[in-house]
């Protein structure tokens, strides 16, 4: 377990230093910095998620769940507002948003090449055969025999919830006033993410993130490329769009209820 934790921690620290260097650079424009930071965060997420798979397989659900919560806390508190998902950038519908998505996809795919290089070195027995087992055409989807509409429903509902809950927690005035470092809000979001992922894991893999899904399950036996795009790209985009549309109504109703209680 120490080997996997060391890999995860070292990547987080090193890539944090890279992000700081980019943000402090005077040679790059702000738009270029934003695009590069999205790519680096996607690369970090990919590296961490791939090694978390090792934790899940060899040490069980509890260890993996703890690591997931801690990673989400770090993303909320340490990524300076950069989203781990490209869905928001897709919904922007802008050229810069599209560029961010492309760079995030590239970062995710590069993380696979990077991690398979580490695994192939077999510094620990846990990595033996890991690169081959996760290769395109070798990996297999456990839910491949489930009705595709059930898989899509799982991704749709999860995407809706994850476009509402984290945003609400981050924008909650009381939490924001008492949590300047975003650690508490990160923990709340972490537990919410864990709950949603656990509820959907056996049904669709609980991706809710197109670029991460392409990294983790793209090319696996069970779905064609068209089915993958339908389930892990189109469905989460629709879910995020629905959640984004519902968010003002939901938060508006909550605020009205609070005002009524005050009166």
Structural notes for this entry:
This protein has helices at residues 2-24, 30-59, 61-78, 87-92, 95-120, 130-133, 148-171, 173-178, 183-204, 210-217, 225-262. It is mostly helical and 263 residues long. The longest helix is centred in the last third of the chain and has 38 residues, at 225-262. It is globular. The chain starts with a helix and ends with a helix. The model has no long low-confidence stretch (mean pLDDT 92).
Low-confidence stretches: none
Major sheet characteristics:
none
Query: Radius of gyration, rounded?
Result: 19 Å
- On the 0 to 100 scale, the average pLDDT is 92
Question: Which range does the strand content fall in?
Answer: under 5%
Quick one: overall form?
globular
State the total count of DSSP E strands: 0
What structural class do the secondary elements suggest?
mainly alpha
- Cα(first) to Cα(last) distance is 54 Å
Percent helix, as a range, is over 70%
For the structure shown, list the relevant keywords:
mainly alpha, 263 residues
How is the topology of this model organized?
Blueprint: H1 2-24, H2 30-59, H3 61-78, H4 87-92, H5 95-120, H6 130-133, H7 148-171, H8 173-178, H9 183-204, H10 210-217, H11 225-262
What's this, in brief?
This protein is mainly alpha-helical and 263 residues long.
